[in-house]
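TASK: fixed-backbone design
INPUT:
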């Protein structure tokens, strides 16, 4: 296959993975729609009608209430399996898109030379991390959040960040690029998973404070303590990886590329700000015992600085950053 064929394959595989993720999202949304009429603990009374989530549902007289609940539970489980299977298939298409993007370059290179490629690879890491942790931490509750996030991010990536395949810039011609960016992408994916858990913690905490019913998606989320643990574990894993990427591999790469370890570049500054926020998050948990709401707020601030460093720098600083590898369309949008 020629380099042009690999570029076409990458574009087609990315479109296929987006469609597959969308079908997975639909399956999970239908799964949780069923849950709205399926109480978690309470049984349906043996009467003509039963209240579920504040709406009356008709119970067939020739079908026992318990059988009706079992049927809905089976349908939930079936659509959960369909959603996860489609997500795995989408991840395979996604992987093909990333690999073929690198093979499309002449000479062949790593597929993260600009924002489009970094976003494509970063979203793949989010999906792979979710699938890797799915069984161990029973992440069925995270499925619609992950698939929805990836679909929206890929849509923005294709519409606004797409760049034709070009050779790497001279500053990127270093094996330290591979080390630095792989670590940064891995940390970004795990921080994003942790941020999702922190956001759901705050949403469920507010939902419980309002005394909502015991049905639906939020009711089936893990308890607040479990959400807090999930957020902590993923972000505690990501922090040393980010430390290595931003404060060790990054400066070494900068020395190879530009002859200095630190140059107060906007990307470097915001990478350090992200490191400080997450260091404060972990330190506050270890010393002050901050858990729950306070920790979730700090984690989301850290996630905001992380994504601003990734996208915002290119919009607000443009050519002022030596790390700006944005697509030309960004310049058009800014003007």
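OUTPUT:
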């Amino acid at each position: 296959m020629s380099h042009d064929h690999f570029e076409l394959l990458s574009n087609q595989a990315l479109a296929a993975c987006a469609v597959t993720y969308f079908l997975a999202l639909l399956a999970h949304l239908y799964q949780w729609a069923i849950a709205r009429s399926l109480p978690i603990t309470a049984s349906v009374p043996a009467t003509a009608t039963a209240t579920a989530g504040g709406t009356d549902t008709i119970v067939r007289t020739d079908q026992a209430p318990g059988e009706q609940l079992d049927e809905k539970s089976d349908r939930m489980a079936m659509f959960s399996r369909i959603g996860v299977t489609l997500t795995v298939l989408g991840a395979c298409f996604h992987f093909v898109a990333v690999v073929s993007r690198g093979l499309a370059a002449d000479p062949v290179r790593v597929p993260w030379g600009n924002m489009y490629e970094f976003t494509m690879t970063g979203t793949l890491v989010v999906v792979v991390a979710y699938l890797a942790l799915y069984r161990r931490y029973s992440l069925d509750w995270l499925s619609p959040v992950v698939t929805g996030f990836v679909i929206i991010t890929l849509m923005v990536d294709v519409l606004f960040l797409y760049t034709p395949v070009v050779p790497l810039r001279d500053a990127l011609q270093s094996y330290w690029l591979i080390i630095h960016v792989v670590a940064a992408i891995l940390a970004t994916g795990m921080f994003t998973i942790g941020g999702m858990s922190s956001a759901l913690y705050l949403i469920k905490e507010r939902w419980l404070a309002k005394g909502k019913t015991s049905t639906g998606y939020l009711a089936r989320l893990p308890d607040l303590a479990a959400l807090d643990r999930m957020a902590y574990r993923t972000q505690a894993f990501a922090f040393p990886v980010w430390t290595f990427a931003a404060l060790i591999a990054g400066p070494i790469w900068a020395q190879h590329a530009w002859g200095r370890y630190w140059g107060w570049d906007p990307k470097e500054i915001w990478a350090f700000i992200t490191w400080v926020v997450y260091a404060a998050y972990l330190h506050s948990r270890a010393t002050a015992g901050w858990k729950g709401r306070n920790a979730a707020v700090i984690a989301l601030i850290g996630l905001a600085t992380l994504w601003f460093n990734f996208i915002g720098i290119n919009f607000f600083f443009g050519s002022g950053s030596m790390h700006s590898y944005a697509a030309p369309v960004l310049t058009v949008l800014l003007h």
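COMMENT: The chain has two domains: 1-168, 169-335.
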